[in-house]
Write a structure and sequence with these properties.
There is one protein chain. The protein has 5 helices and 4 strands, in the order ααβαββαβα. By secondary structure, it is of the alpha/beta class.
């Protein structure tokens, strides 16, 4: 009996102490953002066929440290203040944006920003540079 009462007391204590815990970010609930432009993704296999092709731009949206470890051949470092000057003049130029991996959303943000400026052939590679390297694809270093 004493053991059962002890277990009940521990259970009650845990329940009461967990009532004060609040899940979430601490802000009010809100609707998920709605984007006016649909993001077009591209697979690494598709990117393989575009590397080295004239007229295709690759933009690496990683940190400078990650960029220095290697990037897709021909990629342009995009994480700069004056990024708009890096974009091609023709709005229908094929562009591929990537960052670290699927958990990184910097390339999604950059791709959507380019689409907002009127670029029409914008793609985003979700696997990022980590996926590219893990699949033993060729990289360049600055």
């Amino acid at each position: 009996m004493k053991r059962v009462l002890g277990q009940m007391l521990v259970t009650l204590t845990l329940l009461l102490s967990s009532a004060s815990c609040i899940a979430g970010g601490g802000s009010e609930m809100a609707l998920a953002p709605h984007y006016e432009h649909q993001l077009n993704t591209i697979t690494m296999m598709e990117v393989d066929g575009l590397v080295g092709k004239e007229g295709v731009y690759f933009f690496d949206v990683n940190t400078l440290e990650l960029w220095a470890e290697g990037f897709i051949p021909g990629a342009i470092y995009f994480n700069v203040k004056d990024w708009k000057t890096l974009l091609p003049a023709k709005k229908d130029t094929q562009m591929v944006f990537y960052c670290a991996n699927r958990l990184c959303n910097a390339s999604e943000i950059a791709a959507r920003a380019a689409m907002k400026l009127g670029y029409t052939d914008v793609r985003q590679m979700p696997e990022g540079i980590y996926g590219w390297r893990l699949s033993n694809r060729v990289t360049e270093k600055p």
